[in-house]
Write a sequence for this structure.
């Protein structure tokens, strides 16, 4: 299976609960570039955010009082990017999950 980080964590939960046989699953984790941590973005502003644009790896966020341009990678709230290879019996490795 190819899965984003959040989907891979869901699969791990199913494995832990014995709903999926661990020795029958092979998971490859892929990055999820679409998740931005809204709390990190909101911390840049004292007032309400009124606009949001994405241009490649740059985010432009606007409020009534200011506009900020930031690099997307600094505000992504994803843990994806880990690659889970060869999930077999007790060899599952996922930092912070198991």
């Amino acid at each position: 299976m190819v899965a984003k980080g959040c989907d891979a964590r869901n699969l791990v939960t199913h494995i832990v609960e014995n709903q999926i046989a661990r020795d029958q699953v092979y998971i490859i984790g892929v990055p999820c570039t679409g998740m931005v941590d809204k709390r990190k973005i909101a911390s840049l502003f004292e007032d309400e955010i009124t606009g949001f644009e994405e241009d490649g790896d740059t985010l432009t966020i606007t409020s009534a009082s200011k506009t900020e341009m930031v690099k997307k990678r600094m505000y992504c709230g994803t843990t994806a990017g880990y690659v889970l290879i060869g999930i077999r019996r007790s060899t599952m490795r996922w930092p912070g999950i198991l």
Summary: The longest strand covers residues 49-55. Residues 23 and 88 are 5 Å apart (CA to CA).
